[in-house]
Every structure is written in C-alpha cells, then in structure tokens.
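Collaborator request log, item 7. Partner lab (contact: R.S.) asked for a structural prediction of Peptidase C51 domain-containing protein to inform their binding assays.
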Amino acid sequence: MAKHRLTSTPKTHYLARIILGTSIALTGAVFAGPAALADAPGNAPVGAPPVEVKTEVKTVKAAKTRLESEAERLPKVTAQQVLELASKQIGIRENSQGGGTKFQSWYMSSERAKETTARDGGRSVRDYANAPWCAMFVSWVGEHAGIRPTMGWDAYTVSHAKWFKNHDHWGTTPKPGAVVYFDWNGGKNLEGIDHVGFVKKDNGDGTITTIEGNTGNGKVEQRVRPTSQVVGYGYPVYSG
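Returned to partner:
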C-alpha cells in the first residue's frame, strides 16, 4: 500500500518542512568527547548530554504541555466514542479510480490540504481526490469527534506519526482508541510507515483488532493485525 504521497519527490523536500504546524527539529547532536573538553572552561561535565539534546527534550515537553492544554478547551470525548464513530463508517468504499469518499472530499476542503499539497508532490488540492486515504479517514474521525487539535490531521502517514511523536504522545502500547501505524515489512522506523488505523482492542495474543480506512478492497473495515507489523501508536487526548 502506498505511503500516501501524491507523487515521488525527494525525501529532503518534505522532511525539511514544518510538520502539522509544529516547528520541532529533532536533530541528533555530535558529542565531542572527553578529550575535546579537557581544560575548556565552561563546558558541561564529561558524559553530560549535549545542549542540543537538552533543548530537544524541553521542546518536546513544551509541545506536550501545549497539546494537553488545548485538550482542556475541547469537548470531552472518550476513546469509545471515537471508536463508535469510526465503526459507523465501516463499509464505505472508494470508487474504481480510488476516490469518491467523503474522507478525501473533506480533506481537500480543509486548510491542511493547502499546506500539504506541495509537500506531497501535488499541484493542487484536487490531487488528493484519488489518493490513498487511510490517514484522511483517521483525520476525518478526529475532526467529526471534535478533537482534531489532539488527533492531528494529515494525508501522509509518516508526517502524522511524527506529529504524535513530536508531542510526546507516542508509544508501544496498543490502547483502545490509539492511532496505530503499520510497516508491512515489520520495521520500526517511522519513515517506513505504510498504513494507519485505530486500535479497537488488544487481543492479548500478539494481535490487535483495528478499524481502518482504505484497506481490503478500498473500504473502511474492521481487521485483525499482528503487532509484529506495528511501528508504534499515537495517543490522542481522551477524557476518562
């Protein structure tokens, strides 16, 4: 399944862009080592994390705080309510061109589509009309549940996953209502994400029950997936 890019463009084009309006550059820092610090007044003690790493941690914590503060202004929505809304979409399917769903139509009409078109290699928002739509489905559910600011919205699975990670709402536990990201090859790198959906239930046997858009023959379906294909989980802010 495609990773939800409109065309193939160099990675440097979209990795350099601001992800979902969050200007968090999670960069690795090279630590010079003990020899370089010898007799250098004002340097951090040997073994201390680089300043860049400390700044990164503070930035992510600040983003998490903002996200959770935003949740205080939103309707109180539970994971169960989101799953019920997602379940009501089961059976909706794309047309023979891979489009025609309300999820794609909604995304094309959103401000977010204007922000992501160039990143995704398109020339206009209309290029999303027949694009893979599993991330649009997740985003649509968040919007219509009234919690888009804490669910995120995107058409590209990798960027959506990074948004959760950049807000420190990312992990490895399959909680009901969590947004689950898959790599069909079993990789754990966010860049390898192929698909996204919602966790409905942890089955306790190495599988999870999910609700996903653009799966099977281009439909919204309930599926059972092995956790070995899961890259990670994004956690929207729910009440209760």
